[in-house]
Amino acid sequence: MEINTKSFTLIPMLVLLSIFFHFSLILCKNVNSFTLDLIHRDSPLSPFHNPSNTPYERLQNALYRSFSRASFLKKKYVNPIQSTLIPNGGEYLMKISIGTPPIETLVIVDTGSDLTWTQCKPCVDCFKQLEPIFNPKNSSSYKTIGCNNKLCQGFICNNNTCNYEVSYGDQSHTMGDLSIETFTFASTSGQNVSIPNIVFGCGHDNGGTFPNASSGIIGLGGGYASILNQMHQQIKGKFSYCLIPLESLLDNSNATSHINFGNCAIVSGPDVVSTPLIKKEPSTFYYLNLKGISVGNRTIEFKSSPISPPVGGGGHDQGNIIIDSGTTLTYVPDTFYLNLESMLMLSINATKKDDPSSSFGLCYESNENGTIDVPKIVAHFTNADLELSTSNIFTQVEEDIVCLTIVPGGNQISIFGNLAQANFLIGYDLKANKVSFKPTDCTYKY
Fold first, then answer.
1. Residue of 100, 146, 211, 283 with fewest CB within 10 Å of its CB?
2. Which of 110, 114, 317, 429 is catalytic?
């Protein structure tokens, strides 16, 4: 009698997968674990979406935002006193609700910023926004923070009320009361998660280039004022995200990226690689150590000269790159870029082209699939060899042209951008100080 061993082994495997999926759903349906949609600003689900723009126009807009954001992040690295992030430079949006009863609003998600804030009534000066401006008088859970409160350390004291003031690199600003409120998150499980006593900025004077589709910023940086640190009791310092690839956005897809908090943010499995999260100042940023990048069987050593040394000493190359979800491109030192470009040119058998927008240095004529054949590319972080796909490092800028999305960024802090992070489940463990990567189809709806 012949036994079909493939069918025999497949059945228990499907059962195990079903149990694991069911268990994952349970993990992500309570206050300690939840998953939210991350809406890319160019997605059809975003109020920023312009259906008349071509995919390549959307890409160019994302590139302009990336160049501006990278420039200001580097300035913030030099001068952390001033928040120099361009406020409309964020790439992802999140729906949250504030107060009791909860008032829904749309905020820019920013891993390069700590303070969460939203516009509030009464307005001394507020920019126009599509949703109603939050009125703290209508919320039973709202309260301001007094000057003697330890949460007010580092902020401004005025008439026994703790105030905040943030100025941005493009001369935009927000000022108001540092306050406490209940935040409610619309989990993808369909069950809302409410967390009380979140410290945030209730902005009464806000102006500049803030987009009217959003009401403020949710800060997911590593600093003490970050909402992540405030939710530490619930999420235990764990969050992860899965960013869909750019091509899924540019073709008007309704697919969304996701961000996970708590137990369901744990990244595990045989194909996971992890690298230390290095503590440095400013503490807002998430620093990794990149040792080199290999093209085929040849490796280029990564060297940089960070302006601030790692906390607790160590070599100058420790914490030499920040990982940032709000920056589209990946920025590396000029010399390293030239070496990488030369190695790729020797390894790629395709017709070189000029970039029509003059934004990129290395471009090729793409094949019928809108891509090119490249050797195996691996980013070597400390203890983690991360194999990058072609779409992680090359993107289609015109119908028949693809360009390298790793670009020269001067000789300041380097940035590992969101194109390079696409289709990885990336987990941050702020307690164990590590970042984990797992190859994942991020378009999968869960």
1. 146
2. 110
Following DSSP, what letter does each residue of 79-140 receive, concatenated? Answer: -TTS----GGG--EEEEEEETTTTEEEEEEEETT----EEEBSSPSB----SSPPB-GGG-T
Cα(232)–Cα(98) distance, integer angstroms? 19
pLDDT digits (tens, 9 = 90+) for 255-277: 789 999 999 899 999 999 999 99
Query: Cα(first)–Cα(last) distance of the chain, in Å?
Result: 41
Catalytic residue among 37, 177, 317, 324: 324
CB 360 within 8 A of CB 404: yes
Whether 170 is a known active-site residue: answer: no
Question: Which of 27-36, 79-88, 105-114 has the highest mean predicted lDDT (pLDDT)?
Answer: 105-114
Number of Cα atoms under 13 Å in the Cβ half of residue 159? 3
Q: H or E stretch including 428?
A: strand 424-429
Q: Is 158 helix (H, G, I), strand (E, B) or coil?
A: strand
pLDDT of residue 161: 92
Residues β-bridged to residue 364: 352, 402
| 215 three-state secondary structure | coil
Least confident of 63-67, 133-137, 309-313, 371-375: 309-313
Q: Does the annotation mark 324 as catalytic?
A: yes
Q: Quick one: pLDDT at residue 110?
A: 84
Amino acid at 69: R
Q: Is 247 exposed, middle or buried (0-12, 13-18, 19+ CB in 10 A)?
A: middle
Would you give the DSSP letter of residue 319? T
What's the CA dihedral at 107, 239, 191, 88 to 10 degrees?
10
User: Is the alpha carbon torsion for 253, 53, 418, 357 positive or negative?
Assistant: positive
For residue 186, pLDDT over 50 is answered with yes
Residue pLDDT, tens place only, 159-169: 889 999 988 76
Rama region for 99: left / alpha / beta (φ>0; ψ in -120 to 50; rest): left
Q: Residue 343 belongs to what H/E stretch?
A: helix 334-347
Is the pLDDT confidence value at 84 over 90? no
pLDDT of residue 330: 94
Q: How confident is the model at residue 281 (pLDDT cuts 50, 70, 90)?
A: confident
Cα separation of 251 and 178, whole Å?
Answer: 41
What H or E segment, with its residue span, contains residue 289? none
**413 neighbors 73 (Cβ within 8 angstroms):** yes
